[in-house]
Known about the structure:
The chain has 497 residues and is mainly beta. It is built from two helices and 36 strands. Strands 20, 21, 22, 23, 24, 25, 26 and 27 form an eight-stranded antiparallel sheet that branches. Strands 10, 12, 13, 14, 16 and 19 form a six-stranded antiparallel sheet that branches. Strand 26 and strand 27 form a beta hairpin.
Amino acid sequence: MRAAHLVPAAVVLVALGAIGAAAQLGHPAAAPRPVSSPAVIRQVAVTSAARACPPAPGGAAAPVALLAGGASAAGQGQGQVELTALPPAGLPVRAAGPVSAQSPGALSLLTLPAAKPAGKQAAGQQAPQAEQGWSVAGGGVMAQGLEAELTQSSGLASVRCAEPGSDLWFLGPGQQYGGSQVQLDLMNVDSTAASVDVSIINDGGQVQAGNDNGITVPPHQTVTESLSSVAHGSSVVAIEVHTSIGRVAADVSAESHGVTSWLPSTAGPSTRLVIPGVPPSGSTAGLFMADPGPSTAKVTVTAITPQGHISPFGSQSVDLPGQSASYVALSPLGGTTAALQITSNVPVVAAVLVPGSGPGVLTAATAPISEQAVVAGNTSSGGMAASVLLSAPGAAAQVRLTEIAPASRGGASVTVSQVLSVKAGRTLATPVKAPKGAKHDSAFALVITPLPGSGPLYAARVETQGQNSVVSIIPAASALTTISLPPVRDSYDAISP
């Protein structure tokens, strides 16, 4: 609980008296009170944005796909995006030079160098692997619509580069479902140290993982923690990353038999959640849930499909004891594309594991798209197929999809767009691919824009290979170009901190 800031009562009374007297002097009682003009909310362009990309598995070089400053930003002024190394705390490494992105609206495919230990290694000794993250700082027009993702060599996104925050949640498999080695990366993009507490829930309730409270993350550095001990013997692991000082970006990975899967961050505890991007699957998908509060949750699950709503568990609710986590099979969905709507009497967190490479591929609860969302790393070559799953749980939605890729000649970009309608209470799956005229085998970026008047829209990009084997799911998150500034009003709040 945060300490309250108290103002002595006498000070408040004196201040109120002074304000009241000034009001009487400036506005005599007989004078009519002027009618105030309607409050105006201003839209202001985003001019600064920050993300953090996690260390690549094994400490290797990090391929990154990045899109910043939509096409409409061209000619609106100067801007830049700079990627700077966040070296591992306590491990001396050679400083890597910053890497800059391209012009507004152009997809940048960057390779960030691996961390190299400083100094000479003793004969016969192998240099330690350096778990080095990278900050992504956008300024000016290049801060608008900023999105970056750690990718494979093909440019296919593996995980979003995280936005710094003070309360972050992750949910995924324990050892029983392939999460044998679980790693947490904490990255500080700011100039002040952050203090982090890590809370963990598995099948057995709340657990401790070593020194998981009061973790110091120095400025512009990365701290890596192993959480494998809490995954041992469990089917599900829920992780909360909370800062008491400062903020951090965080990512969680799970390794099984040499294959690394990423746990996308999930929306915080809520009584209503939507998980987009559950593709058809030849085998059983699973729902992970956790109840961090003290009371038992009664959870109702509804699948939003192209045909309408389906109740995978009939009229029954799923009971989840307080401060516990569980796994529930979703086999009743069969081969249906869907989003899952979770409703509960108390706040819960949730994610879905779809069978795929390694432990499988996860999609997690998200907020509805505000203004636009960007998925920078997509591919439609080498036997891969990309699609977008769009879900409108409430009112119908109109959506513009725009694909952007490097041109085959001339160094510019090529784009193509289409407008789609998503019926109320339905999910729509549509294929996407690199535009005509794109560089051969190049990755492409995708921009998802709900049009004015649309109902709440949720989306995810799904990549499959071969016979619909799922290899990547990226839940779509808002990438804002503007923010709303509320009006400033006269208020007695000015005298209270």
